[in-house]
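Write out the 3D structure for:
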Amino acid sequence: MGNTDNRTLIIMRRRRGMTGPDVLDTSALINWPLVSLDGGFVVESQRLEVVRISPDRMLPIETARLNWSSPSRESLEEATRIASKTGDLDGLSETDLRLFALAIELGGHMHTDDYRLQNLCSSVGLKWTSVESKGISEVWEWEIRCRGCGAVADGSENTRPASEGVGECIECGSELRVVKKR
């Protein structure tokens, strides 16, 4: 299968009945042909992401046979616990946390270009495939560290998109950053 692209692999895998249901990140919704989306599981908040990123794509997506789902409270709690343990929670959007929870609940196969989602799936043994990017090559753990004094701070108990600042160090007042754990 040397040069086979990811979309072709998905269709072939579905025909053979391999692994669990497909859980599709927003990158798949935007980049894949509609036929490749059929039967995939997604969460409601992805509608807003698609409208924000690629408004013209939303109408065609509505015609795809997607399973718009919500994970259970228990799956969300488990996903939050795992993301907190790996340190990924502080760079994860609420939508991505819900997708991860849904993948846990369904025993699904995640399709995502989000490195944090790939990291989380790898950390618990869930299958994942990148959509357009190369994907991660190893699992990382993250921590919040001060840029000034190097102190390690406690992580958040809630999601915080990577684009959002983490805060200031209580020791020296410098900026806090999410970095690879030493």
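The chain has a mean pLDDT of 86.
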